[in-house]
């Protein structure tokens, strides 16, 4: 698979928007990633250009993102980069967007602390019969007589 995997470190720029879809939960938010560099003339750190990404989370990751993230939170996002260019109706200029299909995301602990809470596992319905544990033991071998 030739996909571009990216790890971006930045701040949550918009409150996550959560939706229930036919394929399962989905959430999206904007991520602001600003480069910083040392300005030798001023002897201080200076902000550079800011890139904005739309981060998409699906299924359980979407549910956790919506419950955990707020505007301004420092986060680390890992996922697949998707860059699209299109021309909108009635406009002559092209429009480019950079999206990240998140595989993992979390707070950046280099810039603060976080209190992790493990999500409860979904309960197995009582109507589902319990699967017996497989027998991984091998039967003992019969001794071989040597003549």
From TrEMBL:
One of its GO terms (biological process) is DNA replication. Homotetramer. InterPro entries: NA-bd_OB-fold, Primosome_PriB/ssb, ssDNA-bd. One of its GO terms (molecular function) is single-stranded DNA binding. SUPFAM superfamilies: Nucleic acid-binding proteins. This is Single-stranded DNA-binding protein. PROSITE patterns: SSB (PS50935). Residues 113-147 are annotated as: Disordered. The keyword DNA-binding applies. CDD domains: SSB_OBF (cd04496). Keywords: DNA-binding. The lineage of its organism: Bacteria, Bacillati, Actinomycetota, Actinomycetes, Kitasatosporales.
